[in-house]
């Protein structure tokens, strides 16, 4: 069934070339209609209560709130329609890229396969580190306790940071490879079949760029990610130790804990967002990490509407995609169990297990699609800043400036005749 989940994921990504805009526009209209229906329903319910009663006030408040949200939602759609249309076209391009370069979906799979033995070895060594110390037996306690020296604790934290850094580096390498392939596809002309020849999309070339030319930049970006993750783990460890001996019911302490967790989570997400976009800028401009991170930050600020719209559309497509993959895989599993294994009295258990597996598979494949969208958006903005590009995908040409669009089409015509 894992193979079926993979096929369904690839089929969904392939179909996005044709169904992205209808599916997106239908989803947006359904959301707007839902707000209007809830507002109308609240108003109708309010009429059944006595005026100025608590129930009437609650129903009217709900109706007005839904109406205002629906109105603001409609205004946002109207104001950001051009960016929304661009985001939908970016999704179509990303679908075409992934469908025409199917080997790219193996990059995160290989990354996770490489991480598994590293994590297994880390667990093996961590157990041995934990066992270093003096064993003490406590009365009425089933397992003995191990009192470790400070040096051993420091070694463990250093070892933990090494694991976080290595895992972040491997995942960052996979992100850079996907970004490099997407940029090569954009500027190679509509995305040709994957090969290792020059001027075509090549995973091997992207891997060589990552390991030979930009290994330091990727290592520095992954270092920042690992450092923030280590700070979060240390914070949770301090919280755990304090709650064992302190007053964990103190409201001031609870408020501080929630605020600190929120700040650290936001910091972690910001660092991941900046490093992800920095890797794309490195692939485009062959620059160092710090310069690429600053350039990507300024780029997002200059085109915040485009990135926000692309992020919103990507979230909708990812949600629909995961739901489609899970639903299709679960239905196929349920039908197969009922017809091929009638002795199974609870097919729902196997269906739930497959649904969980299909969610993981769908998330893995759609992550490639989502990151490709961001890389293609970066490439489009660069082409726009440079005055248009003859190799820009056809679905993105209408969004270039009029003169640049004409120049790009004019350059395409001789190539098509040849």
Describe the model.
The protein has 418 residues and is mainly α. Helix content is 81%, strand content 1%. It contains twelve helices and two strands, in the order H-H-H-H-E-E-H-H-H-H-H-H-H-H. The chain has helices spanning 2-47, 54-79, 81-100, 106-130, 150-187, 203-213, 215-245, 251-285, 289-302, 304-340, 347-385, 402-417, and strands spanning 134-136, 145-147. A two-stranded antiparallel sheet has the order 1-2. Strand 1 and strand 2 form a beta hairpin. Helix 1 packs across helix 11, helix 5 packs across helix 6 (203-213) and helix 5 (150-187) packs across helix 8. It starts with a helix and ends with a helix.
Short summary of the structure?
With 418 residues, this protein is mostly helical. The protein contains 12 helices and 2 strands.
Strands, helices and their partners?
Blueprint (H helix, E strand, L loop, with lengths): L1 H46 L6 H26 L1 H20 L5 H25 L3 E3 L8 E3 L2 H38 L15 H11 L1 H31 L5 H35 L3 H14 L1 H37 L6 H39 L16 H16 L1
Antiparallel strand pairs: 1-2
Question: Which key terms come to mind for this protein?
Answer:
mainly alpha; 418 residues; single chain; 2 strands; two-stranded antiparallel ribbon
Query: Could you give the order of the helices and strands?
Result: HHHHEEHHHHHHHH
The total count of strands amounts to 2
Distance between the termini: 46 Å
Radius of gyration: 26 Å
Mean pLDDT across every amino acid position: 81
Q: Give the DSSP E fraction (strand runs of 2 or more residues).
A: under 5%
